[in-house]
Amino acid sequence: QVQLAESGGGLVQAGGSLRLSCVPSGSSFSFNAMGWYRQAPGKERELVAGLSTWGKTNYAESVKGRFTISRDNAKNTVYLQMNSLKPEDTAVYYCKLDHYWGQGTQVTVSS
């Protein structure tokens, strides 16, 4: 059974940065589709950033130029670097590898 462990969330002031990490267990690190999603209170879950096994990335318009998704095969980790954070980035962030979901990590950006 594959489980995803997310970390790196927290409280940060507007303009600050956070880096989220996602580490899978129970499987070799050979996922075809990797992504970070978020869900704010009262809103639907949305794709923030995606990364294919071939290295193609895609981002939500609202985070382009501020967020970067990457992977480190040696560390079996997928990252989401978030810079210039805004209060509207506040949400629970979820890692998804193929069809597996993490439990979510809270990101709160204060104004």
Question: What this model shows, in words?
Answer:
0% of the residues lie in helices and 55% in strands. It contains no helices and eleven strands. The protein has strands at 3-7, 10-13, 18-25, 33-39, 46-52, 57-59, 67-72, 77-82, 91-97, 100-101, 105-110. Strands 2, 4, 5, 6, 9, 10 and 11 form a seven-stranded mixed beta sheet that branches. Strands 1-3-8-7 form a four-stranded antiparallel beta sheet, with no helix packed on it. The model has no long low-confidence stretch (mean pLDDT 94).
Give short descriptive properties of this protein.
111 residues, mainly beta, seven-stranded mixed sheet, four-stranded antiparallel sheet
Lay out the secondary structure.
Elements: E1 3-7, E2 10-13, E3 18-25, E4 33-39, E5 46-52, E6 57-59, E7 67-72, E8 77-82, E9 91-97, E10 100-101, E11 105-110
Parallel strand pairs: 2-11
Antiparallel strand pairs: 1-3, 3-8, 4-5, 4-9, 5-6, 7-8, 9-10, 9-11
Give the terminus-to-terminus CA distance: 40 Å
Radius of gyration: 13 Å
Average pLDDT works out at: 94
* Major sheet: 7 strands, mixed
Order of helices and strands: EEEEEEEEEEE
DSSP strand (E) fraction? over 45%
The total beta strand count reads: 11
In helices, the fraction of residues equals under 10%
Shape: globular
How would you classify the helix and strand content by structural class? mainly beta
Number of helices: 0
Contiguous low-pLDDT stretches (5 residues minimum) are none
